[in-house]
UniProtKB/TrEMBL annotation:
One record GO biological process: lipid A biosynthetic process
InterPro entries according to UniProt: Ribosomal_Su5_D2-typ_SF (IPR020568), UDP-acyl_GlcNac_deAcase (IPR004463), UDP-acyl_N-AcGlcN_deAcase_N (IPR015870)
Protein name according to UniProt: UDP-3-O-[3-hydroxymyristoyl] N-acetylglucosamine deacetylase
Organism the protein comes from: marine metagenome
One Pfam family from the record: LpxC
Length: 78
C-alpha cells in the first residue's frame, strides 16, 4: 500500500491577534505562503535573530495545558 501526501499552501499572508489563555499576553500569528517541501514553521519575531521552530512531532517537549515545541533551545506554546 502506498501513501501519497499532497501539499497545499495559501496564496496570501493573513494574521490573527489574540490574548493567550494561560499567559494573558497578547500575541500575533501571521500565516505566509511557503515553497514546496517547506513544511510548517514558527518564527519567533520577539527573539534576536528570529529563530524558526519546525512543526514536527519530534520537537514536542511538553503537553500539559497545551502543546510546547522546541528547537535549538527556542520554544513556542499553544
Amino acid at each position: 500500500m502506498s501513501f501519497i501526501k499532497f501539499q497545499r499552501t495559501i496564496s496570501n499572508n493573513t494574521s490573527c491577534v489574540g490574548v493567550g489563555l494561560h499567559t494573558g499576553v497578547e500575541s500575533k500569528i501571521t500565516f505566509k505562503p511557503a515553497p514546496d517541501n517547506f513544511g510548517i514553521r514558527f518564527k519567533r519575531m520577539d527573539i534576536e535573530g528570529c529563530p524558526e521552530i519546525r512543526a514536527d512531532i519530534d520537537h514536542v517537549v511538553d503537553i500539559s495545558r497545551g502543546t510546547t515545541i522546541a528547537e535549538n533551545g527556542v520554544k513556542i506554546h499553544t
